[in-house]
Amino acid sequence: MTDIISAPAIRQAVEQSVKQGVKHLADVPGVVVKGDGAVEDGRQPIRAAVARAAELARDAEERAVSRQHAKGKRTARERLDLLFDAGSFIEIGRFAGGDINGGKAGAAVITGFGEVYGRKVAVYAQDFSVNGGSLGRAEGEKVCRLMDRALDLKIPIVALIDSGGARIQEGVAALTEYGHIFRKTCEASGFVPQLSLILGPCAGGAVYCPALTDLIIMTRENSNMFVTGPDVVKAATGETISMEDLGGGTVHNTVSGVAHYLGEDEADAIDYARTVLAYLPSNSDENPPAFAYAATRADRETAKRLATIVPDNDRQPYDVLDVIRCILDYGEFVQVQELFARSAVVGFGCVEGHPVGVVANQPNVNAGILDVDSSEKVARFVRLCDAFNLPVITLVDTPGYKPGSDQEHAGIIRRGAKVIYAYANAQVPLVTVVLRKAFGGAYIVMGSKAIGADMNFAWPSSQIAVLGATGAVNIIHRKDLQKEKEAGRDVDALRRRLADDYERTTVNANLSLETGQIDAMIDPEQTRQAIAESLAMLASKRRVRRTTKHHGNQPL
């Protein structure tokens, strides 16, 4: 930060006071208090008021270190050092909300700007060492000012959350500030990327600040989110539950789906935030950054591996991550919501140096079926990519939507429709590859040509139909099968024969190829090349506003 507190004379005096355990800068040897109230160290005069501010800043950080480190947590400023490129952070309003003469260093939030991989980012970091990081009028005003500047500059906003919530002593005034932040967050949504790192408690209405942002990152320990805490839950329902089991990082990454990444510690969480920002543009008016990429002989060897990953037996599982890594540059893939709704895989990668979003069914988990959770996971990610101009590559291998009363009662109709809404409204380049199975409604919603995909490919062994062969035969030929059973003949043999005939005539990609729903049949080894060529062709695709509507009414 560049201000008077970081001036060489003052910084040196502060460092000496820390080393020598001196409370007042005027007591540091070599620093002289002059009669006019100024202090000097032989190079630059330091006014008493400035010296007092420097002392407060020093004492505040020492207090933060002692309080945070005892809990296994970093201070807000230490976290900022991890987030930003070295020496790039510029703080704004350091003493806003403070009382220098009264001995108060400032508000319980740090705001400013820094660089992540050389690109400007806005940040606000709550400081739990000051009033428990609680939010009052001063903190709310600082955050809103920062967000206004971020919108003016069209740069991402990162929030480092570690707070006890609204400052009770300020009552409605504190709640009002949350309302202001909510509105600013909604205004920024889809315009600039917004990331929230939960590095401590986040409770009550405060949880909706991160909930409105694009990605939520939590840590395995010390990270909690809940609307009502354990004490309130017990008083209201009689249930006894710990903070971790109620709203810890593991719960929100594996059960609720609220969070998108679970960091092993604060450093891991912050590194993930830096990585994600590298794939996203600064705002919705820009394209994602491009990276240098040079094809090598290893790429050809990697492409050949694709022919060996997917088993011939359509009921045998495999890990779709192996396919994804063979398609993306250097095999690098950054998953989003890795631990939630694992029958679907979503995340970021690059194709020939250009960032893309990847959506895939995961045959290793429930055969890659779409259920209520995986539907929302896919829909949310496609909307994120569409908002920030990332092409979407969809890899399809799914038997359909998950059947059962539990899914129907959980809203598979409403929640499954979110996938349709996301793909049908996306205007970024959409490239889809059917790897193996694509049945029923799941075929349509997973980036089909009918729903708006630009280029659709299929592997030679892929199966595209309303139903799988066995299920279709059981419905279409149920009377024939019943007659065979009544006649005492081999029903299974007839079922197999009919299923083979159905597969030959209906469950293959040729019909889709002939009707134009598939643009080309490709060998697995050609997958990366086909995707790269499609993205190059679609690079000039532009958004079109087809109606004068304000916005659609998405199923929520």
From TrEMBL:
Domain CoA carboxyltransferase C-terminal: 297-550
GO cellular component entries: acetyl-CoA carboxylase complex
One GO process term, biological-process aspect: fatty acid biosynthetic process
InterPro entries for the chain: AccD/PCCB, AcCoA_carboxyl_beta, Acetyl_CoA_COase_Trfase_b_su, ClpP/crotonase-like_dom_sf, COA_CT_C, COA_CT_N
Origin superkingdom: Bacteria
Gene Ontology molecular functions: acetyl-CoA carboxylase activity; propionyl-CoA carboxylase activity
PROSITE patterns: COA_CT_CTER (PS50989), COA_CT_NTER (PS50980)
Domain CoA carboxyltransferase N-terminal: 40-292
PANTHER family: PROPIONYL-COA CARBOXYLASE BETA CHAIN (PTHR43842), PROPIONYL-COA CARBOXYLASE BETA CHAIN, MITOCHONDRIAL (PTHR43842:SF2)
Protein name: Acyl-CoA carboxylase subunit beta
Lineage: Bacteria, Bacillati, Actinomycetota, Actinomycetes, Bifidobacteriales
